[in-house]
Specification:
Strand 6 and strand 7 form a beta hairpin. This protein has one domain: Lipocalin (Beta Barrel), CATH 2.40.128. It has an eight-stranded antiparallel β-barrel with strand order 1-2-3-4-5-6-7-8. It is built from one helix and eight strands. The radius of gyration is 17 Å and the shape is globular. The protein is mainly beta and about 140 residues long.
Length: about 140
């Protein structure tokens, strides 16, 4: 009986801890239409956070290329592209990496922070974080 109770308590704790993570699938919302634009998967590799576009909701844009990119992403498919690279955990946020805006081809410094288990804050900026833009992603179901 005690073992069963302990197992249940540990299972519940494990589920609630795992849901408090930046990793997983997130919906990127279009500011103008307020609809889901794409699904982004945030994943960990060697202790750093990365994110790639795994779904584009407008099927007519699924084959779009990053024509405005100036780096190795130039003319590569946006679907499957890494847009967040090299973020390291720093307290309660992940920073020190970059975010790519495939619409403009521009790369910005960024940090991300989990607001709650279903909301992720992404801040992209040039120079200082005061001069930038904030977006919020919602956890994909």
């Amino acid at each position: 009986m005690k073992k069963t109770f302990l197992f249940l308590v540990l299972s519940v704790l494990s589920v609630s801890i795992n849901s408090q993570t930046i990793f997983g699938k997130w919906n990127s919302i279009n500011e103008e239409t307020e609809k889901i634009d794409s699904v982004i998967e945030v994943y960990e590799d060697n202790g750093k956070a990365y994110a790639k576009i795994i779904e584009i909701t407008d099927k007519t844009k699924e084959k779009n290329l990053c024509e405005l990119c100036k780096d190795e992403n130039k003319n590569k498919p946006i679907l499957g592209m890494n847009i967040l690279t090299g973020l390291e955990k720093n307290g309660n946020e992940w920073s020190g990496g970059n975010i790519l805006d495939p619409r403009s081809g521009k790369i910005y410094k960024c940090y991300i922070k989990l607001i709650n288990k279903n909301k992720l804050k992404i801040r992209g900026y040039m120079g200082f974080s005061l001069f930038g833009k904030t977006a919020y992603w919602e956890r994909s179901k």
